[in-house]
Amino acid sequence: MRRAAGVALACLGLLLASPPLTPSAATVDRPFATSSPFNTAVPAGTRTDPASAAMVARATRTRQLHANLVAYGIPVLTATPSTPRHRVTCSMAAAWGPCPLTRQALPIPLDARPSTGDDGALVVVDPATGTIGEYWQARRSGSGWTASYGAVNDLAGSGWGGSSTGAGASRLAGVVRVREIRAGLIPHALVLQSDNVCAGTVRPPALKTDGTSRRTDCLPEGARLQLDPALDLAEVPGLTPGERTVARALQVYGGYVIDRAGTPLSASFERAPDATASSPGAVYRAAGFGWDYDGMDAVPWHRLRVLRTWQG
């Protein structure tokens, strides 16, 4: 996430609020309510945004959708009853408002390592309380932790709320998980980032934006993109197993623009436990991801489209 530059839409948060679910309905492996925009397939008969062609042409100008696997991969950890708990302070609280991380002691495992990119992202799920601690620019401070900012989200909620991403999406929402690539199935929408995110324009379900682009072909945060569902992936030459899995998820569930980034278009992946600076990890490599920021070149990304609304 880059510095947020929008006003939260409080009324939208109420619209997206989900009724409480039983603990078995939302889990670490399958987070958020079944009615969440992340867990809802793109409906049939969707309408395309009138500016879709221009927006997609700009976003896919390099013919790639980069997989953020390592430096900007998201470390997703699960707390246990014995995990140490901390009152995490926010260094940006003076500018952005009261720190949501100090309201309760939050679990952070001893072996936690934030992402090494500028975002310093870290996600810790606490199944006992049904909460998700989400940290932006997390770092150790003596025996405790601090962050530039973050959020605490509901594991059984909508997947939207707080300031751990530019659009107000949960930092866990839409992240491609290691186990999903191993299984060859991503049962949810993805989250996308772009270097051409609109300034001052917010599209539901996004709550805010950190976009700065004034171009006419900019992508609004909250925009839902879908890979053409009529595309027969079996006929696309050279697809790796990982590319096919990602492409199929984008056909069924699409992906939401949730952050400003340094690349034309990218997607968030969980950082594998065995990832290194030179390898994304064994599971990703077996699926055909050769390196961090793999562009998934074999997928015809020009076949993406921007939907008029997230419901289609």
UniProtKB/TrEMBL annotation:
Give the species. Answer: Microlunatus capsulatus
Assigned keywords, A-Z? Signal
Q: Tell me the first and last residues of the signal peptide.
A: 1-25
Q: In its UniProt entry, what is this protein called?
A: Uncharacterized protein
Instruction: List the top taxonomic levels of the source.
Output: Bacteria, Bacillati, Actinomycetota, Actinomycetes, Propionibacteriales
